[in-house]
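Field guide to reading this record: the first block holds the primary sequence, the second block holds the structure written as discrete tokens, and the final block holds curator observations. Each block starts with its own label. This record concerns 8-oxo-dGTP diphosphatase, catalogued under organism Yinghuangia soli.

BLOCK 1 — SEQUENCE
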Amino acid sequence: MDRTPAAPDPEDAPVIVVGAAILHAGRVLAARRSAPAHLAGGWEFPGGKLEPGETEAAALVRECQEELGVTVRAVARLPGVWPLNQGYVLHLWRAELLAGEPQPLEDHSELRWLAPHELDDVAWLPQDRDAVAVVARLMATTPSG
Ligand SMILES: Nc1nc2c([nH]c(=O)n2[C@H]2C[C@H](O)[C@@H](COP(=O)(O)OP(=O)(O)OP(=O)(O)O)O2)c(=O)[nH]1
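BLOCK 2 — STRUCTURE
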């Protein structure tokens, strides 16, 4: 039997990764990846891959519960689609923290709440930089809660 993994079909729709821009008290939550090795140490938005049949909002809520132990509400998708590696694309959602204090339970080694002037203080994954710029613009126009 041929056990070679099938090459990705270019006709396949890309896998959507939903990222949460959780805004709280004028800051956004950033998370430092702990795995896999080639991404470890880079900062990103908490989130993960959409599962079959799942809405983006539901995936966002599920991933934030699993990774951070918090309940969030997906408020609105931010404009943009950012290509990641392995044929993934990032969709970013503004999210509101409803309950809990975020903890790095899964996939992350550190969390930070960043004020607008601190957005450049962490080493974002290179593929996230344009998305971070969109979040910076959002924070500039969002009254802090
Ligand atoms: N969550 C998230 N993932 C990102 C961002 N930027 C970026 O390149 N990625 C990559 C890292 C991973 O290769 C992929 C997301 O996969 P993941 O491992 O977080 O997803 P998951 O929680 O569903 O993981 P799994 O169940 O497959 O283990 O997208 C980002 O800002 N947020």
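BLOCK 3 — OBSERVATIONS
Residues 1-7 have pLDDT under 50 and may be disordered.
Residues 15-140 form a domain with the Nucleoside Triphosphate Pyrophosphohydrolase fold (CATH 3.90.79.10).
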